[in-house]
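Explain this protein:
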Amino acid sequence: MTNPAGVLPGATQAIGALMKATRQGGVPQPTLELVHLRVSQINGCSACVDASSRSARKAGESDERLATVAAWRDAPFFTDAERAALALAEHSTRLADREDAVPDAVWQEAARHYDEKGLAAIVMMCAVANFFNRLNATTRQVAGQAW
């Protein structure tokens, strides 16, 4: 089917407003793009993996970093702040995988690198990415095709 966001009046504009809001937290755009990419990888959303990889490249990300974001813990290419954002993204995406969905240690490490607005931006980006993933995976949107 056509992407549900394109079917319902006002949905695309509302999603655009959410995306715009995530950019108001002072988190570097490349970091937000990495967060979106990692969430989409976890959820297996090919359309979002493709789109977020493209967006990340436009934001200045290297192919080397994009190729290793799925294994960020073992790759030397990420800063401590990026690692904290990626850990928070993984935990907030895999909420049902553990009793303590986002452990205090994960949150505290993120809070060492980001203020409240930055944390809000990362959490919002995780939520928006998970939202996109659910729309796209459920309706089998094809990577590389715009809706």
User: Anything to note?
Assistant: The helical segments are 4-7, 11-22, 29-43, 46-58, 63-68, 80-93, 104-113, 116-138.
